[in-house]
Amino acid sequence: QVQLKESGPGLVKPSHSLSLTCTVSGGSISTAANYWIWTRQPPGKGLEWMGAIAFDGATYYSPSLKSRTSISRDTSKNQFSLQLSSVTPEDTAVYYCSRGNWVYESEQWGQGTQVTVSS
C-alpha cells in the first residue's frame, strides 16, 4: 500500500517561493503507469489540480499555474517536489500530494499540509 506524506514550511512570505516535498513509501515513484500529483484546496473553495510528474519523469501543469509551477523528483529518495514561485495570499491552501493511474485522477492521498502566505 503506497503511502504519501507532504512536508515543507507552513508559512511563506508574499513574493517568495513555496517548496513542498512528498515522500512516498510502499512503492517506487518510477513504477510504470503511476502519476504523482499535486492538488490544493484554498479555504472555502474546492480542490484545484496543480500538476503532476509521471513515472518516466514527464511533467504536466495546470495552464493557470504553469508559469509559476515546477514539479521535480528525486528517485534516489523516492520523493517528488513542488515549487510555486511569486506566491500571494491567494496561494494560501492545504496542499496535497497523491498517486493516480492517470494524470488527473488521484487514488491515494497524503494527509495534506497547510501553507499560509503572509508577511
Q: Would you give an account of this structure?
A:
- This protein is mainly beta.
- Helix content is 0%, strand content 50%.
- It is globular, with a radius of gyration of 13 Å.
Q: From N to C, what is the helix and strand string?
A: EEEEEEEEEEE
Q: Cα distance, first to last residue? A: 39 Å
Shape: globular
**Strand percentage:** over 45%
Tally of individual helices:
0
What's the alpha carbon Rg, rounded to whole Å?
13 Å
Keyword list:
single chain; 4-stranded antiparallel beta sheet; 7-stranded mixed beta sheet; 119 residues; mainly beta
List the helices and strands and how they pair.
Layout: E1 3-7, E2 11-12, E3 18-25, E4 35-41, E5 48-54, E6 59-61, E7 69-74, E8 79-84, E9 93-100, E10 108-109, E11 113-117
Parallel strand pairs: 2-11
Antiparallel strand pairs: 1-3, 3-8, 4-5, 4-9, 5-6, 7-8, 9-10, 9-11
